[in-house]
Amino acid sequence: MSILAGRPATEGVVGALASAAPSLRDRLLEAAVQIMTTAGWGRVTMARLADEVGVSRQTVYNEIGTKNDLAEAMVMRELDRFLAGVTQSFDENPDDLIAAIQHSARRVLKYAEDNALLHAVVSATHGADTELLPLLTTHSEYLLEGAKLVIGERVADYDVDLPEGRLEASIDMVVRLVLSHVMQPTATPARTADDIAWIAERVLG
Q: Is 172 in contact with 146 (CB distance < 8 Å)?
């Protein structure tokens, strides 16, 4: 018997749509990204976010906190998205560390190509949005340390013949190399990922 038996025909559809609807937090973060990428970080205010999403300013403060908290939430959400691709790549290559790194780099770089928030960040580093620069300095460590933590945990599943200190240094190097190409790409994601994998193979063996 169908699990929908005895229920209105539209109830299952409505329920599915409701579960797929973005949360208030996601809507606020999306609105913040939209404002920042079109008008600059200085134009992002709690009042404007409230107007964009259709809630009170107090609701925005209750959900997000301060503007600095908003910046952190935006950075952490992007980090989660980047690392989701990394996790998938390692899951798909459980017996080949270099392939996992190559696929991870390609996914991350491809995602970064069309990332509006990242483009705004790059513009800020070139002086287009000086108000955003202090926040980048403060929160960039989240990206680096978060990525190193996830990669380190996944690399531990592979047989790498390196002392612990050297392994940590190698992971740090690979992560920084990928992030540098995220910020300033010099070739296609596929070509850059191949180059990063070539370097990783010689370092990690």
A: no
Model pLDDT for residues 107-134, shown as the tens digit of each residue = 999 988 888 777 666 665 545 555 655 5
Burial of 87 (0-12, 13-18, 19+ CB in 10 A): middle
Cα 97 from Cα 101, distance rounded (Å):
6
Helices assigned H by DSSP within the chain: 11-20, 24-39, 46-53, 57-64, 67-92, 97-113, 116-125, 133-155, 164-183, 189-204
Torsion sign (Cα): 127, 129, 132, 136: negative
Q: Mind listing the domains of the chain with CATH numbers?
A: 11-65 (1.10.10.60), 66-204 (1.10.357)
pTM confidence score: 0.75
For residue 80, what are the CA distances in angstroms to 14, 73, 108, 198? Answer: 28, 10, 11, 26
Tell me how far apart the alpha carbons of residues 96 and 72 are, in angstroms, rounded to a whole number: 34
